[in-house]
Amino acid sequence: MNPTLALRQAQQLWNELARRDALRAILDSPDGEDLQTFFDTGIAEIEALRERIEKLGVHFGGHKALDFGCGVGRLTRALARYFRHVVGVDIAYEMLVRARSLRPPDNCSFVLNCRADLRLFRDGSFDLAYSSLTLQHLPSQLALAYLREFVRVVRPGGIIAFNLPSHRVRPGRIRRWVGQSALAILQLLAYYGRRFGMNPIVPMRGIPSCRVVSTLQVAGARLLAVEPSNCAGPDWASYAYYAIVPVSDPAS
Ligand SMILES: C[S@@+](CC[C@H](N)C(=O)[O-])C[C@H]1O[C@@H](n2cnc3c(N)ncnc32)[C@H](O)[C@@H]1O
Question: Which ligand 1 atom sits nearest the alpha carbon of residue 95?
Answer without folding.
Answer: 27
